[in-house]
Structures are given as C-alpha cells and as structure tokens.
Amino acid sequence: MWKKILNIILNKYFLTSVAFLVWLFFFDSNNIILRLRLNNQLNELRREKQFYLDEIQKDSILTQKLLNDTAELERFAREKYLMKKDNEDVFLMVDTTPDPHQ
C-alpha cells in the first residue's frame, strides 16, 4: 500500500504537475493572492460606483425640483444657505444631543 502511494508521489508527471501548480498559485505574475486582492478591489469599486450612481440620481431629482418649483427652491435656499426674507429673522437651532449611532 505504502509502496504504491510512494510510486505515485515520485512519478515524474505527478511531480511536474505539483511543481506547475505551485508555480501558478504562488510565483506567477497572476498568482492566487493577487487575484484575490484584485477581486476585493473590484467589489469595492462596484460598491463605490453604485453609491455615486445613487447620489447622481438623488441630485438629478433635486435639480428638477429646484428648476420647476419655486417653493422648493425657497426651502432649499433657506435650509442650505440660511437665506431669509427682508422682514424676518432666522434662528439656527443646533442639536446637542449625542448621536446614538456613534
């Protein structure tokens, strides 16, 4: 039994195949470690791409609202840029409660 296993392991074709696989997995320019890193990077870039596509979608909707609705434009100017009418005062409220998500 052991002699048969030893003959298989010492076979020149088996040794050549093992050496070839070791070379491909660890020493080649496209080795398995590099492939895994590139795959992780590709997944991260896909998530980032989806995030930016979603942001573009939200900004496009907001742009259409601001171009077509004057009340929405006024609300946006008041909230984002603290603009006010001539006869009114603006009070800025700052929330000092701790954020439970941190």
SSE layout:
Layout: H1 2-9, H2 12-27, H3 32-68, H4 70-81
Helix pairs in contact: 3-4
Give the helix level as a range of percent.
over 70%
What count of helical segments does DSSP give? 4
Number of separate strands: 0
The ordered string of helix (H) and strand (E) elements is HHHH
Q: Rg to the nearest angstrom?
A: 32 Å
Describe the main β-sheet briefly: none
How widely separated are the two ends? 63 Å
Structural class by sheet pairing and helices: mainly alpha
The oligomerization state is: single chain
How many domains would you count in the coordinates?
A: 2
Average pLDDT rating: 87
Q: What shape does the CA trace take? A: rod-shaped
Segments where pLDDT lies below 50 for 5+ residues? Answer: none
Beta content comes to under 5%
Would you mind describing this structure in some detail?
The chain is built from 4 helices and no strands. It has helices spanning 2-9, 12-27, 32-68, 70-81. Helix 3 (32-68) packs across helix 4 (70-81). The longest helix has 37 residues, at 32-68. The chain is rod-shaped, with a radius of gyration of 32 Å. It starts with a helix and ends in a 21-residue tail after the last helix. The mean pLDDT is 87.
Task: Output the keywords.
single chain, 102 residues, mainly alpha, 2 domains, rod-shaped
Could you write a compact summary of the structure shown?
The protein is an all-alpha fold and 102 residues long. The protein is built from four helices and no strands.
